[in-house]
Amino acid sequence: MTHAYYVLACLCFAGGLYKVRDLRRDPTSLALRGTCSTLALLGLAFVTLAPATRLAIDQWTGLEKVARWLGNSATLAAGYSIRIVMALPDGSA
Questions:
Q1: Contacts by 47-52 with C-beta closer than 8 Å and gap 24+?
Q2: Host domain of residue 34
Q3: What total of structural domains would you count in the chain?
Q4: What tens digit of pLDDT does each residue of 4-46 get?
């Protein structure tokens, strides 16, 4: 099950890098910015919430459940990021 987190994180990062290519062509597009940030934040959340990484982060910081807080914060930020994209009048700016 742990491997699934890393596979999903890789897919999110790959999708984000693929969209960055489009963002470099049109850097003023708010929709592309939001999409790239959503995919990057979701990838970060998957990496942070993977059991092996979560234990390593908690041991490194010396605080319990810091990784859970980071992963949940990244997920929440990704949700807000895609919500901003959906609130754009025509999906782009």
A1: 47/5, 47/6, 47/9, 48/74, 49/5, 50/2, 50/5, 50/6, 50/9, 51/1, 51/2, 51/5, 52/2
A2: 2-87
A3: 1
A4: 999 999 999 999 999 999 999 998 888 899 999 999 999 999 9
d(CA 91, CA 93): 7
Give pTM, 2 decimals.
0.86
Q: Which of 47, 24, 23, 52 is nearest to 35 (CA)?
A: 23
pLDDT at 88: 80
8 A C-beta contact, residue 20 and residue 64: no
Q: Is residue 93 part of a domain?
A: no
Q: Please indicate, yes or no, if residue 92 is contained in any of the structural domains.
A: no
